[in-house]
Amino acid sequence: MTMGSVPNEPDGCGEDRTWPVGSRDANAFGLFDMQGNAGEWMMNWYASDGIAQYAAGNLTDQAQSRQRLVRGGSWDENKANLRSSFRNVKPPVSGRSIYGSIGFRCAYDPS
User: Fold this and answer.
1) Three-class secondary structure of residue 13 per DSSP
2) Which pLDDT does position 96 carry in this prediction?
3) Residue 17 neighbours by CB distance under 10 Å
4) N or C: where does the chain have the smaller number of CB atoms within 10 Å of the terminal CB?
5) Taking all residues of the chain, what is their mean pLDDT, rounded to a whole number?
6) Distance separating alpha carbons of residues 51 and 55, to the nearest angstrom
7) Which DSSP state fits 22?
């Protein structure tokens, strides 16, 4: 467990927050911050058969439900969920006190 400046706080490497983007070394693929910083809101709504829908090629047409998917382990997840493949569901409401560890990823094609 890493302890930082926040007493008795193991989350966020002891800081209880995200870290500056790219403050850790890139992984073997040259990617930064794929887990452990912010979870990622997905455009897809939660469906109990969502994995089967994706396997059948339906990537964008799930019916609206009460919750959206969140991918990737954020700074406040436990060790078992601190991975890029972590799949969670949350109601899409706003407020830092509710979901201060979920955001979105910006990406671009450098070519």
Assistant:
1) helix
2) 62
3) 16
4) C
5) 81
6) 6
7) T
The domain locations on the chain are 11-103
Chain position carrying tokens 């969140």: 70
Q: Which two tokens stand for residue 107?
A: 């990406």
Cα–Cα distance for residue pair 7/14, rounded to 1 Å: 8
Task: Please enumerate in sequence order all residues whose Cβ is within 8 A of that of 1, keeping only pairs 6 or more positions apart, or say none.
Answer: 10
| pLDDT for 1 | 53
Residues of the chain with pLDDT under 70: 1-4, 10, 12, 95-98
What pLDDT is attached to residue 6? 74
Please report the beta strands in 1-111, taking only residues with DSSP state E, as ranges in sequence order.
39-45, 68-71, 87-90, 102-103
pTM metric for this prediction: 0.68
Single-letter amino acid code for the residue at 36:
G
45: β partners: 68
Backbone φ and ψ for 79, nearest 5 degrees, come out as -55, -40
CA angle 74, 61, 52 (to 5 degrees): 70
Give residue 58's Cα distance to chain centre. 22
